[in-house]
From TrEMBL:
Ranges of residues in domain Prolyl 4-hydroxylase alpha subunit: 5-223
GO molecular function, a single term: L-ascorbic acid binding
Protein name: Prolyl 4-hydroxylase alpha subunit domain-containing protein
Entry cofactors: L-ascorbate
Organism (species): Rehaibacterium terrae
Length: 234
């Protein structure tokens, strides 16, 4: 049995119809702007058109739809990689049999159904801001090898990123894969599929240029709650 690479793809996270509606809304909105990286607009590193939909009232339904789909995928991901939740924190949770607080370990984790696991996951993690992105055929892409963790500012917000995710909103073009450097793995876009992977340098990646058609994606992160939420302000 080969060692896991911690890159998972879940087909059917969104329907083809829902994806097509998001693509159509993207184009009809007139809101897309040049894509940004941590240092600003640098098209030699990332050439895309983006809409940051989080916090926009007209996109609230789409944001909720995407976060709901990602949360389902996150629960599946944690079922396979339970220590992504257990290892960073010494969590105490109610025992499903007695209701008494107990330390969460692998054995207890496996006894939790989704109804009990979901609130624990929501206590530990929060959704990041969502970008809808278009990579233009024969031009667009994110060719710079990068990871998702970096010390950008005093808020340390990018350092709270635990997992990255992408939902592919279309296919029918060549190339355009999400390519992971150390895992030597390319994820081909498939309409409605959800990619989840760790954010650290171990999963350095890039977005290859699509050929023969534009590529549309929704993308963001699963972040830890901030310390004051998890531990209080003491």
């Amino acid at each position: 049995m080969s060692a896991p690479d911690f890159i998972e793809v879940y087909d059917g996270a969104l329907s083809r119809e829902d994806c097509a509606r998001l693509v159509a809304r993207f184009e009809a909105s007139g809101q897309h702007e040049p894509g940004r990286v941590g240092s600003g607009v640098l098209p030699e590193l990332k050439d895309s058109r983006d809409i940051h939909i989080s916090g926009r009232r007209e996109w609230a339904d789409a944001e909720q739809q995407l976060n709901t789909a990602v949360f389902r995928g996150l629960l599946a991901y944690l079922r396979k990689y339970r220590y992504a939740l257990i290892a960073p924190l010494m969590l105490q949770v109610p025992d499903p049999a007695s209701g008494e607080p107990v330390r969460l370990d692998a054995e207890l984790f496996d006894r939790l159904d989704d109804a009990r696991l979901g609130p624990i996951v929501s206590h530990v993690f929060r959704p990041g801001g969502i970008n809808l992105q278009r990579y233009t055929a024969g031009r667009g892409g994110y060719p710079y090898w990068h990871c998702e963790l970096y010390p950008k500012d005093a808020s340390a917000e990018p350092l709270h990123r635990h997992l990255l995710w992408t939902i592919y909103l279309n296919d029918g073009f060549e190339a355009g894969e999400t390519e992971f450097l150390y895992q030597r793995r390319k994820i081909a876009p498939k309409t409605g599929s959800l990619l989840i992977a760790p954010t650290a340098f171990t999963h350095t990646h890039r977005g290859n240029m699509p050929v023969g058609g534009d590529k549309y994606i929704a993308t963001s992160w699963v972040l830890f709650q901030r310390a004051e939420t998890l531990f209080g302000r003491g």
